[in-house]
Amino acid sequence: MLYGAISGECYFRGVAGERFAVRNSGAIAVVEGAGDHCCEYMTGGIVVVLGKTGRNFAAGMSGGIAYVLDQDGGFPTLCNLAMVELEPLLEEEEINAKAFHQSGDLEGHGRVDVMSDLTRYDAARLHLLISRHARFARSRRAAQIIANWDAFLPLFRKVMPVEYRRALTDLAKEKAAKMQAAE
Q1: 57 vs 138: CA distance, rounded Å
Q2: What is the pTM of this model?
C-alpha cells in the first residue's frame, strides 16, 4: 500500500502488511500497525503508526517523517538507524499538545499550520492526524489514544532522516535571513 505515493491523505483502520509506504514521497498516512520494511526508501510525506511494526523500519528513508507508538519500548531494535534518528517529542511540544487538546480540533482555529514545519509542532500534528483517523476510519484505537492523550504522547517516537533535518534547518535559516533583509 502507498508504493510511490506522491500526495493525499489516507487512514487505514487495521494493520498493514509488509512494505507499507515504500517510496512514499508526499502522502500522509495513518495505520494501526505495519509489517516489515515500513517507510522503506521514503522521501517525503508523513506516516503515523499506532501500533507495532515489523523489522527494518525506515531502511533507506531520506525524507519525510514518521511517528511510531512504541508502547513496549522495543521499536529502536526494529528501526534501521542507518539514515534516521529517533527523536523524542520535545517538552515544549507536550505543553503545546495539552493546550491544543483542551481547545479541541486544530483545524479551522487559525493558530498555526502544523504541517508547515516538520521540525516543530510534532504533538499538535500527531493530535490532528490521530483525531482525523478516529473520525474518518472510525478507529477505536485512535479514539482511545485521543481520550488518553497525556499518557500516550510520551510513548511516540519521531523517525527523522538526518540529512532531511539538516536540509529543513538550512531552508528555515535562509528564509529567516531573507525576511530580515527585507525589513
Answers
A1: 26
A2: 0.87
